[in-house]
Amino acid sequence: MQAKCYENRSARHGRRRSPKLRTTRSRKPYRALPESARFAHVPFIGTLNGLRRLMLVANSSSRLYTLIGQRHMTVHQSQLTKRAFDALVDMPRCGSIADLDSVAAPVLGDLGIPLFGWGRFFGPQGEPETAFLAGRWLSSWTAFYLEQGYGGRSMIARAMLSTSLPYCWHEIIRRGLDGTTWEIVNEARGFGFKDGLFFPMRAQDGGYSAVAFCAVEADFQDPLLRKVAEVMAAYYGREAARLSTPVNPATSLLSPRQRECLAWVRQGKSSADISGILGLSIPTVDGHIAEACRKFGVRTRVQAVVEACLSGQIDR
Predict the structure, then answer these.
(1) What are the structural domains of the chain?
(2) Counting Cβ atoms within 10 Å, is residue 37 exposed (0-12), middle (13-18) or buried (19+)?
(3) CA-CA distance, 171 to 178, in Å (whole number)?
(4) Half-sphere exposure of 152 (CA within 13 A, CB side)
(5) From 113's CA, which of 61, 106, 142, 288 has a CA 20 to 30 Å away?
(6) CA-to-CA distance for 301 and 147, rounded, in angstroms?
(7) Angle 158-163-166 (CA atoms, 0-180°, nearest 5)?
(8) pLDDT tens digits, residue range 25-65?
(9) 128, 151 contact by CB (below 8 A)
(10) What three-state secondary structure class fits 195?
(11) How far is the CA of 241 from the CAs of 75, 110, 133, 211, in angstroms?
């Protein structure tokens, strides 16, 4: 009877109706990002905006798990990750290499990386120029390393000439080493180093420098530890380079208008907003900010604000 009524109703409307099927939306299975894609779209190096994006990533646990390719984190891992991001906030405020080392050392020590630093390894043409410029190194190892001239002979160190991406010792070892590099690796293991990480950088003169982490207990094949170490290395290297570069007060002294513009940038105002506040045209505001960036040797207005705060030319 019910079926007949159903057919009659369909006939009256001139169409054939099919029974409704209730469907449920299936969730996509979790899939970790490939190694090359993790953190690839997070521009964390060089700007405070990037740091804010990274902090937002850290505060969103599900987002962080996706980026590092790990679905769950232990309480210890979560605490360690937060401490690392807190250190990133403190690094730009450091006024000396010693302060920078004091901020980085506790976090890296908890990661199993007691020895770290920033150094120059090659000149602009790839010629060996090994010098340890900042950090906490093992003095006996650095003296031995320099005495033997390992910086220019090691395949692990020379890998920075062909890549700008961070890499670990074990990744170069997998490709095969020559006899000299195997000798260097065995010597390093004799000093207690289990693995290491290089974060390549380019100097202003075109030379090759790098942040080097020497792991005693750390396992750089762990995705969480690897990514935290890479971000720490990026910020440590940037701040070490900043603190090691002498600043000429005559060239970095801002004009009153430049200080005003940067002070409003610090308040989050755009060029259009500053233009209305100060009664200037937008191109004039942009010109003042660009000139401040040039004096400080930076590329972005956020970096100029940081430099102006650190030099005491605008209020923090």
Answers:
(1) 48-244 (3.30.450.80), 249-310 (1.10.10.10)
(2) exposed
(3) 14
(4) 13
(5) 61
(6) 43
(7) 90
(8) 444 443 433 333 333 333 334 434 444 444 444 444 444 44
(9) yes
(10) strand
(11) 34, 24, 9, 10
